[in-house]
Amino acid sequence: MNRGEIRTAVKERLAIPSIGDGLLPDSTLNSLINRSLATISAAKEWPWLLDTYTMNTYKYSNSNTYKYNNKYTNTKYYAN
User: Fold this and answer.
1) Domain ranges of the chain
2) Per-residue pLDDT at 80
3) Number of CB atoms found within 10 A of residue 55's CB
């Protein structure tokens, strides 16, 4: 499900008309959905959120600084 599908499901569950509701606009629903997903995702390492990724690191010359992909968040396993 994408955020639009989740938003539609929430609207149906709360009986909000498809044209919207002035007290609960899409922007508010989006914020609530994002916050809920972040809370659930942070609660534990859910198997459906784990992915395999090969990451290459590049060491800058004459320093101990490494450059990582901008999508990198954490490492569960490290293999050499």
Assistant:
1) 3-67
2) 47
3) 9
State the pLDDT at residue 10: 92
- Whole-angstrom distance, CA of residue 48 vs CA of residue 51: 8
Question: What are 50-74's pLDDT values in tens digits?
Answer: 766 666 666 666 666 666 656 666 6
What is the spatial distance between Cα 1 and Cα 9, in angstroms, rounded to a whole number? Answer: 10
Cα–Cα–Cα angle for 25, 7, 49, rounded to 5 degrees? 135
Cβ partners under 8 Å of residue 67, min gap 6: 57, 58, 60
> Is residue 49 scored above 90 in pLDDT?
no
CB 3 within 8 A of CB 33: yes
